[in-house]
Design a protein that fits this description.
It is built from 7 helices and 7 strands, in the order E-H-E-H-E-H-H-E-H-E-H-E-E-H. The chain has helices at residues 14-23, 54-63, 75-78, 84-100, 127-135, 150-159, 183-189; strands at residues 7-10, 26-29, 67-73, 107-111, 144-147, 162-166, 178-180. The structure holds zinc ion.
């Protein structure tokens, strides 16, 4: 038995949700170092800066019928570096930038726990992916997890979905099904629009 919960929010409107359930496809995507420039324990919305290719890549997944679902570890909360509201402000800033680009997230989830808490949600565990997949009727066979860390590919592998590592071949984790250097390149290898 445990008392751990992670934070999650569905942001998509009703029409978009219908489309997602219709395709069953989801792109689970890490935040820091994948959607935005990685700044350790980011707690300031002004520090949110999209990585090159984030909008283009998300648009291609979105147009190919994928739900866009952020899955993030935010242990800065559990470690006492910043509070929940700060993490939510950073996420809101991210969503507003993505919205401007026409590619808003459909849902987001983050784990607020420190590693020492041994929670069931922190990546590389797959609880956040598992629960969001269930919530949005996502089909594991046609979904994937992308991120710049072995904890991302680890979580994707644990959830039984395809994994894509964003980074260099030299650092590619064993449980990555493929490696790309940008989000649009991930859309390329999947031959999306
Ligand atoms: Zn957790």
């Amino acid at each position: 038995m445990n008392n751990f919960t992670f934070h999650h929010k569905v942001l998509a409107n009703e029409n978009r949700l219908k489309a997602i359930v219709g395709t069953g496809r989801a792109l689970f995507i890490d935040r820091d170092g994948t959607l935005i420039i990685n700044r350790d324990y980011l707690d300031d919305p002004d520090g949110v800066e999209l990585l090159p290719g984030t909008i283009e890549g998300l648009l291609r997944f979105q147009q190919s019928g994928y739900a866009l679902i952020m899955i993030s570890n935010q242990s800065g909360i559990g470690r006492g570096y910043f509070d929940l509201a700060a993490a939510q402000d950073v996420n809101a800033r991210l969503q507003s930038l993505l919205k401007e680009g026409g590619a808003p997230l459909d849902a987001l989830a983050f784990c607020p726990h420190a590693p020492s808490e041994m929670c069931p949600c922190r990546k590389p565990k797959s609880l956040m992916i598992d629960e969001l997949a269930q919530l949005l009727s996502v089909n594991h066979a046609t979904s994937l997890m992308i991120g710049d860390s072995h904890v991302d590919t680890g979580a994707g592998r644990a959830a039984g979905i395809q994994t894509i590592f964003l980074g260099s071949e030299d650092n590619c984790p064993e449980d990555a099904d493929s490696t790309v250097s940008s989000l649009p390149e991930a859309a390329d290898i999947l031959e999306l629009l």
